[in-house]
Write a structure and sequence with these properties.
single chain, 451 residues, alpha/beta, Rossmann fold, UDP-N-acetylmuramoyl-L-alanine:D-glutamate ligase, Protein-Tyrosine Phosphatase, Chain A, 3 domains, 9-stranded mixed β-sheet, 6-stranded mixed β-sheet, 20 strands, globular
Amino acid sequence: MTFSVDRKRVTVVGAARSGVAAAELLAHRGASVTLTDTRADVPDAEALRRLGVSLELGGHRAETFDASDLIVLSPGVPPEQPLVHAARSRGIPVIAEIELASRWLRGRVIAITGTKGKSTTTALTGRILERAGLKVTVGGNIGAPLSAQVSQSTPDTLHVVETSSFQLEQIDTFHPWIAVMLNFSPDHLDRHPSVEAYAAAKARIFENQSADDWAVINADDPSVLALAREARSRKRLFAMRGPIGEGTVLDRGWISDRSDRGDRHLVPVEAIHLLGPHLVNDVMAAATVGLLAGATSAAMTAAVESFRGLEHAMELVADIGGVRFVNDSKATNVDAALHSIESFDRDLVVIMGGRFKGGDLRLLREPLRARSRAVVAIGESQALFRDALTGAVAVHLADTFGNAIARAHELAKPKGVVLLAPACASFDMFHDYAERGRIFKEEVGKLKAES
């Protein structure tokens, strides 16, 4: 039966880009839409009103939730928010924005999740499929929300969707043709009540798959193998290190498709122009999806060759008198920061800190001891970094972001690397990781001009 919201009362909670896209989609589909947010102002307010969307800003109203036929959550809204929880208890359906959008998609979904690397893999997968001549949209947790892609969806469209745990925890029928899990480590423990709850949300990416679908899973990560164990879909492994008899492997300078017929070359490693060996893992995942979708080796290689990575993900910003500055503002958890640090051999000065999301900072001690001259700690978690890292590496506290960058520059001279790898969210000092990364680049630009 076709899903319909015609003349239904739908409340969209959270007016960030996903919530706005959901409200617009619902209005076009005939719903009576209320968009509610705790902020007093939201972008595109007048355009939304012209569509007939009612805006409730500056706080949520219980009576609006109570009168709803359906509630749609933006990813940033906790499902246990009191009014949401109360509505669900009364039997009102509560779904994620990607769940809503997926009910109207005509094409197939390729969903990508993991604790780190989602954005890079999603963007590169889209480029590989485009090079292969396929009709592709790319978005979800990056770029255009899935709700904004519904109007473009045709039976031959492939929707490449980055999916976070926040989105997956509120799905119902969301059904990827290909579901990719890159890795798993503790994260977002400021939002999820436990590591187990975070893992369960991630594992939902496989929940609605059938035997005709594919689960692309990292065989080097035991947690991923465990989370995918119950998937009904066909499993396609990829592994950088571990020996696997069948799947995507890294061997003698090539990413290759291994089967009982031998290895078939897909992408030469020398075509990868990304800073950080851990990003090869993301390229392998993207190539695996490309292979399943019918892309040729030539198309994969051309896409990889031209891909220089994403902004704020191991982004080389500048070289000032022999000191390199690298922006990895997207390294918002301990494991991502660990991989950033391990991408360098020596003479590192790492800027870390922000709003801590959980994890064990002591895991950074030995990698920092081996590679780093110092850590410059910022934000509300400074004391956590000082306590966890002192004795392994010198920890300097900075009162502002600008002072942190200037101090790191001095410590890295004459030939070191200043790495922004916060291991934390940005919300204590910035709107998001992207703003943090942009300001990092602006401050580095000022240093370069002064020098």
